[in-house]
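Structure tokens please, single chain.
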Amino acid sequence: MEVSYSCNEHAPEIVFFDLETTVPKKGGQRFWVLEFGAIVVSAHKLSEIESYTTLIRPKDLSVVSVKSSRCDGITRGAVENAPSFEDVADRIFNILNGRVWAGHNIQRFDCVRIKEAFEDINRPAPVPVGIIDSLGVLTEKFGRRAGNMKMATLASYFGMGQQKHRSLDDVRMNLEVLKNCATVLFLESSLPNTLHSKWYGSSRVIMTRSRTNGKSPCKEESSRKSPPTSLAYQRTVPCARGSLEKVTEKVKGLLCKAQGKPPPLQQLLKHSHSLLR
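Here you go.
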């Protein structure tokens, strides 16, 4: 008797991760990792399986500001007694290696910094089985209805409060933003003629509200994770009929490309639908 196995039974876990780093003040300077944070979630239910976060002391403490320009920012005093990257490399490797990597703007920034950090200690870097960058996915499918595509702006759009710019808080916010975007796209795909035009007719109002919603934002240094200025990320793509399904297919394709099997991530749709009950 032939036994068939569903790809869902063997779907790799997804790790949402984020780095906090120094910001180079002049040319030739590099980024140094100051904090790593990650949550591992099930591809079936998007439920959190484990989490890990740690501050990291750079080789040269002078690259860290004595006083951060960000609210809740990382200062020199906060990391002076923290472990070095080499001390926590095993834990970081184990939580990342062989999983799907997810996060906001990770392809352009976080993945590069992880590779650099492991090169610094002459160790092989962890390898993902696939990458889901929410910046690219949401820019293409959700559009720029919330203004720019920074995580802080998306979070403000959905009333989630201010981004804390701390790794573990940011990755959990990233997952919640994705859930909310998926829910909106699900609703629009269900009633495209009724809901679609209303979103895009008020984009200017939404952008203004995003900048002024709630308390005045704290003074913040230039973000090393700002969305890139390339046209690929700047253009607005309207949500056509079935756009949620397209988002899901794109994510599922990344997972299955690594496995060579049918797509495993229908649960993003199911989870989004459960939020409406």
